[in-house]
Specification:
single chain; alpha/beta; Rossmann fold; 2 domains; five-stranded parallel β-sheet; 15 helices; elongated
Length: about 325
């Protein structure tokens, strides 16, 4: 609607620029040259109204979404940041009286382009997330399980996927807290480590963790990281099974970066953790941990966390649709 109004204003200025300029001649002190210049200025400057309407409409959208800084930036771009430098550049020309007016539509066009980029970024940050959350909200107890090689940053990826889709997040620490909250275990440090934090293959711990995972899946939408949760929930039709992997060098460098280990220590920890996870999974499931046939989606984390998160969210959304 706003764009239609600004378009009408532009057309009116284009049609009636001369009559409006003649108003300056009512005093009798204005020359024909000034009236002609004013007519040209009105017609050139009015072109910017079309693009101004687009930028102002985007400002309204951003304000409605709760943003304050972004609409302010758009205003500053229109009125200050673009206009003054362009005007100054035109004043360096001998033909300044004829071309300086072009600064206004040029500033509006540039601002409209930047406004579009800001709106696109906002869509990715907020609007698309609201759409995805709505899709997830219509699902029945969706569970996303994430198995991962050590050094793929799987926990952080899982947490961000959960945040983006509005799901609960559980890894071993959250499972431990869940067990305490629901009185499924005692607050004994040794027992908590044995049952919920250790990857030692022990019958009692496997039973305890499987019990927790099944209770979590019954309660509601969740992202569960590790603990062979994909196999434990294999009969649940609402489970999406993800596996994250990467080259050994990539994972060693990632561990070095996160834990400040030297190369030798990082490599040792990566291999040790992978072996523990593999053994734990294979004892429970009698299947190969890295066998991609066990999962719905396998992703190489070398493409970057942001792309991995987006791919998982898109896959879940498409699957639910």
């Amino acid at each position: 609607m706003l764009n239609i109004v600004t378009l009408v204003i532009t057309v009116l200025f284009e049609l009636f620029a001369r009559p409006l300029s003649n108003l300056f001649g009512l005093t009798g002190d204005v020359t024909e040259e000034i009236i002609t210049t004013c007519t040209m200025a009105l017609r050139i400057a009015s072109i910017g109204y079309i693009f101004m309407g687009f930028s102002v409409a985007i400002q309204g959208v951003l304000q409605a979404l709760g943003y304050a800084l972004r609409p302010l930036i758009i205003s500053l771009l229109r009125l200050v940041i673009f206009v003054f430098p362009i005007v100054y550049i035109f004043t360096l020309s001998d033909n300044v009286i004829n071309i300086v007016w072009r600064a206004f539509p040029i500033a509006e066009i540039l601002t409209a382009f930047i406004s579009f980029l800001i709106l696109k970024k906002t869509y990715k940050e907020k609007i698309s997330i609201l759409r995805e959350s709505k899709i997830i909200g219509s699902a029945k107890k969706l569970i996303i399980t994430i198995s991962r090689e050590h050094g793929t940053n799987g926990k952080e990826i899982g947490r961000k996927v959960a945040d983006r889709l509005g799901l609960n997040f559980y890894d071993k620490e959250e499972m431990k807290e869940y067990a305490l909250k629901h009185s499924l275990t005692t607050n004994n440090t040794e027992e908590l480590y044995r049952y919920y934090l250790s990857l030692d293959v022990e019958k009692d711990s496997i039973i305890k963790q499987a019990e927790i995972i099944k209770k979590i899946s019954e309660e509601g939408d969740s992202v569960i990281v590790g603990r062979a949760s994909d196999f434990i929930l294999r009969d649940n039709k609402n489970v999406v099974k993800i596996f994250l992997y990467a080259s050994l060098d990539y994972r060693i460098n990632k561990v070095k970066e996160i834990y400040k280990d030297d190369y030798k220590t990082a490599k040792k920890n990566v291999l040790k953790s992978d072996k523990s996870r593999s053994t734990y999974y294979e004892v429970i499931s009698n299947q190969k941990w890295r066998d991609m046939k066990n999962y719905d989606l396998c992703l190489n984390c070398e493409i970057g966390n942001d792309k991995i998160i987006k791919t998982i969210c898109d896959y879940v959304g498409n699957r639910l649709n």
